[in-house]
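Bit of a strange request maybe. I'm writing a small parser for structure token strings and I need a real example to test against, not something I typed by hand. Could someone generate the tokens for this chain?
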Amino acid sequence: MEPRKASIADRIHSCLESFNTLTRTLKVHIKEHGEDLSLLAVEDQIGRFRLWAGNIGALQEGRSSLDYRLRDAQFVAENVLRLLDSLQKSVIGGIHFI
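Reply from user aminoacidic:
Good idea to test on real output. This should exercise your parser:
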């Protein structure tokens, strides 16, 4: 049996988890070092990311899902997955930077 490939929805959930970890880390950092605009910037980007995911149906299931709609456009689906991987690596990098 072939292992299940990660879906776009799976990757988006992973990115959101990383964003949430980043915001929690920044909140601790702010308590230690005072006010910081980076938390507002991160929260703004999370909102934009959620809006993007919602607008394209990336978290939908079944035939309305982005995974389903891109099933015959493997090149596009792979590029979306690569971009999501890159985003997650950047967010994790931000967590480690703090």
